[in-house]
Amino acid sequence: MRVLAAMSGGVDSAVAAARAVDAGHDVVGVHLALSRGAQGGGPARARGCCTVEDAGDARRAADGLGIPFYVWDLSERFTADVVDDFTAEYAAGRTPNPCVRCNERVKFAALLDRALALGFDALATGHYARLEPPASGEGPPTLHRARDAAKDQSYVLAVVPPHRLARALLPLGDVATKDDVRAEAADRGLAVADKPDSHDICFVPDGDARGFVRARVPSAPGVVRDESGAVVGEHDGVVGLTVGQRRGLRLGTPAADGRPRYVLSLSVVTGDVVVGPAERLERRSVTGGAPVWCGPAPAAGARLGAQLRAHGAEVPAVLTGTDPVEVELAEPVRGVAPGQTLALYDGTRVVGSTTVAAAR
Q: What is the CATH number assigned to the segment(s) 282-359?
């Protein structure tokens, strides 16, 4: 097959590309320029991903593998579908996951579409997840958790429709640990073997997501109330606050019991923020919007696993509705907020996903 290997400049994508070469595929490497700064049109960022340094690391890895290498400018698409979406979601009082959006709209949409238009058969990435043939033997492959549970990224791929995942290669899904990937990279002589992982939102390299949003969206000051309605503090803008937040609230009145308080709800209309104890963040019922099913939709009453954060624990759940998606959680989950992604599992298999609309 002709395979386009997405190479971020990190160790995972480099080893994924190397494994695609080993499998006998005709591989071409591509690095995505997702910001003007990453192409030399502005200052390179010292942290995050997709920097000028990352592009250089990706090129050196491709050279070491002996494969052609290109840099593709998808900065406009990334800005519109990820950065602007991130800003708009926070401005509307929701909590987005930009990595989910990037996979859904950029890597497995814009990038994959361009690859197919150029005659490639598949897109290889360094995601930690597995694709397996369907149990029936017919139809697209099914998405499963990676062998390395600590690095599993099936959650951020759960939003990708099956017909697009059918064009994906995920060579790292069966590795035991990230240390094994680094050891393999070292054995192959890849200079990125010891390169640290990036944990920041790539377009917010200083880690200040709220500051990033507030610089782009006007937000008026307002009051912070406890559950009785009493004013316990003030804030300088709802934008960038999120359900479950504790830090940066600047509460002038301590709780009667002295315990920490968290954002329970917020309104971009009134500007009010309501705070309360941690246990008031617990939710047992979640409703989502339009679903993405990775195969036939399960029937109401199905017992599944629910995951609500990229690194969150899976919780047993019962599917009580399919369109819109409704689930009842077997145990409470704290800090569930509109805008988050709900991924549903049957064992290791991803059943589907939806965007959280409400939780109670």
A: 2.40.30.10
